[in-house]
Design goal:
heterodimer, A: 261 residues, alpha/beta, six-stranded mixed sheet, four-stranded antiparallel sheet, 10 strands, B: 384 residues, Transcription Regulator spoIIAA, 2 domains, 4 strands, 8% strand
Chain lengths: 261, 384
Amino acid sequence: MPDPGPVIELDGIENRFGAQVVHDGVGFDVRRGEIFGLVGGSGSGKSVLLKTILGLRRPDAGRVLVEGQDVTAMNDEELRRFKRRYGVTFQHGALFTSLTVAENIKLPVAEAVDLDEATLDALVELRLRMVGLTLDTAAKAPAQLSGGMVKRVALARALALDPAILFLDEPTAGLDPIAATEFDELILYLRRTLGLTIVMVTHDLDTLARTCDRVAVLVDRKVIVDTLEGIVAHDHPWIHSYFHGARGRAISAEREAGRGA
Amino acid sequence: MLASAAREPRRSVMEFSADFDPASGRLTLAGDCAMLDAPALERALGQLRGAAPAGLEVNFERSGTFDIGPAWLLRRALHVLGASGTQVRYRGQPPGHFAYFDELLGRDAGRFPEPAKLTLSQRFTAFGHAVADRVDGWYEELVYGGQLLTSAANAWRSVRRLRIPSIVRHMHETGVQAIPVVAVIAFLISVISAYIGAQQLRPFGAEIFTVDLVTIGVLRELGVLLTAIMVAGRTGSAYAAELGVMKLNDEVDALESMGLNPYEVLVLPRVVALVLVLPLLTVVANAMGIAGGALLTNYLLDLPWQQFVSRLDSAIADTTLWAGLVKAPVFGLLIGLTGTMRGLQVRESSRELGRLTTVAVVQSIFLVIFADALFAIYFLEIDF
């Protein structure tokens, strides 16, 4: 299914805060067109690792290659151009509350390229349709939206510059199971039709089971990467209690029933 | 599903170009079209729309991959042309995204809401609503004052509910930390007024009255008024912003859910702290103001310190100090109430926070000056 070539390559990443070592030799590849889950306990350094990949933090050692370019060696101008190649959604949406939905989606485009207002409106229509929202959402303020709609608008904004890679931080956290399932479907649909590469941090085991091709688990400052089946079968005590605790049992049933959609 | 262009590894960049030739009715697209190339595409599509040719041939033979955004713009423009009677033909393979768009457009997403055009009667209604909102605002302010009074009355009954530690913390932040700036401002203002006074009074040989001018001016008006304005800027805005962010973070709801009264926990300590602190700051301002006056008269008029003090003694009446000081707690109350109330009115967005913080400062300064005017009239009438 996905092309085999890696889009993101991490090699020997080390991150330290003073004496505290967060990552000690973390390395993995994310392949083109795959949905890659990132899992770990609280404080295991998921956000730090995400920031490292996004070029927002320079690791203390190691390299991050995105589409063959070394993010850790980029200067400010190269980083600025690089950041337009990916889209990010944040856990709480991080919509600009003083702007309408349409203005939120226009902002990254208008900053990057010089286009007419009518063209920008046309692009807003496209993004809203892509994330399955109706067009009357455009004039609304973020405060008027439900949790599921906030996540969709955040996704629409992340897609605004047609990124090749999407980073989703807890995309389904705080959603009810129905809205979460719909969001999973949306992510799968976008991957299928647009061939996006998606990296998501999530604790939602249902989302992991439904969407992710492979999963990376951050434990003991290292990373273990495998398909979900492989990870579930792993005998590390933290992984075991993560996937076989009360919340994890639903997964096996889900996997047997086959992938959603 | 369709084969997507974006899935192919990105070939290294071929410069994008879009050329419309009106004579032959040909739109030639070449190279990879990313979002950043959208302006070039937009220009060509604009020419196309202007020309509205009878037949159009779109040539994709030299075009590479399309990002979704520009592909959407292209398809939209071609559809509009097609609908207005232009025969559109493709040469070469159009972007794979076109099939995806058919799928997207197959789902009903409604329409963009029309920007409202107001009729005369609607404008009239809007005006009425604005008036009604204003009246509601007054009502809200009345309720606010009432709730605060109730919680104040409750709090007096037990010392614990008065939250002494919280009051002390706010007194430190709004009072102790404001001493340097208040002192400097009072000093400078009295230096300025002494300088102007000395200059104006000298031709009449009445420069000794500079002492009267500065001391009475500082004690009755300038000390307390400048302190209040500084505090309104410093603390009024801080109260509004602090409570506004708490409101946005649901912290106020959290307090209420614990059975705590936000007026008692958040508002009362802040207001009480300001009522207590403003007279104390005024004393500091008065002292610095008189010091500034003494320094300048000594320097400009060669007035010895002892003579300044004896002149000051005869210039001020018993009531002069109190005429200034008695206003301070009232100003403190006004600033505290305005700042906290505007903070708690913040709803939904960060823009509201900024707006209401500004409103808090502007209104508290206005109220302080307005109250000062009332005091002036009142003191004149009772000969205070």
